[in-house]
Amino acid sequence: MPMQSDSFYARGLRFSCTECSLCCRFDSGYVFLSDHDIHSLTQRFTLSRRQFIDRYCRQIDVGIAARITLREQKNLDCIFWKHGGCSVYSDRPLQCRSFPFWPAHVASLAQWQALRRECPGIDVGRLHSREAIEQWVNRRNREPFCNPQQEQRK
Ligand code: SF4
Ligand code: SF4
């Protein structure tokens, strides 16, 4: 997605994770997976795609499309939250590793500022350049969420 040089984040945005764990725990917020995410995690667990999806994922309808999301534990922690951290950290989905630089979050200053209510790391700490932010946005656009209908044909 081409960006304007006068974008609200032309001079970068500040973000540093405080490791509060709110985005991994206590909520059924979705972690949507791409084909590449599923591939990485099946390699990690030595499972087929079908086995991995049956064990760790569920399918949901988000209105405009169906998507594959990670399951939650009974207390609504992400299924991969174990022993105080992400148990698949080096293979965590793009949605997790690219946070907070998702296309929707950087679409406008208002959307970026609204994130402050969800994440204490927004607008504090490390400065991320416009180029770095655009790299995350472009990677998300190149790596779309997995389509469950196509998945069933694999
Ligand atoms: S909510 Fe923000 S600060 Fe807390 S763990 Fe997630 S990214 Fe880090
Ligand atoms: S995969 Fe890891 S980083 Fe992503 S929500 Fe689950 S525990 Fe958090």
Structural notes for this entry:
The chain is an alpha+beta fold and 154 residues long. The chain has one domain (13-152). It is 31% helix and 16% strand. The chain has helices at residues 35-45, 49-56, 94-97, 109-114, 130-142, 148-152, and strands at 13-15, 57-61, 66-70, 81-82, 85-86, 122-128. The strands form three sheets. A two-stranded antiparallel sheet has the order 1-6. Strands 2-3 form a two-stranded antiparallel ribbon. A two-stranded antiparallel ribbon has the order 4-5. 22% of the residues are buried. The mean pLDDT is 93. The site of one iron/sulfur cluster has 10 residues, from loops.
Distance between the termini: 29 Å
Helix content: 25-40%
Q: What is the H-and-E element order?
A: EHHEEEEHHEHH
Number of domains: 1
Percent strand: 15-25%
Task: List the strand order in the largest sheet.
Answer: 1-6
Bound molecules: iron/sulfur cluster
Number of helices: 6
As a whole number of angstroms, the C-alpha radius of gyration is 16 Å
Let me know the average pLDDT: 93
Shape: globular
Low-confidence stretches: none
Structural class, from helix and strand content?
Answer: alpha+beta
**Total strand segments:** 6
Main beta sheet: 2 strands, antiparallel
Brief summary:
By secondary structure, the protein is of the alpha+beta class.
Search tags:
single chain, 154 residues, alpha+beta, two-stranded antiparallel sheet, 6 helices, binds iron/sulfur cluster
Describe the protein's topology.
Layout: E1 13-15, H1 35-45, H2 49-56, E2 57-61, E3 66-70, E4 81-82, E5 85-86, H3 94-97, H4 109-114, E6 122-128, H5 130-142, H6 148-152
Antiparallel strand pairs: 1-6, 2-3, 4-5
Helix pairs in contact: 1-2
The protein binds iron/sulfur cluster (SF4) (2 copies).
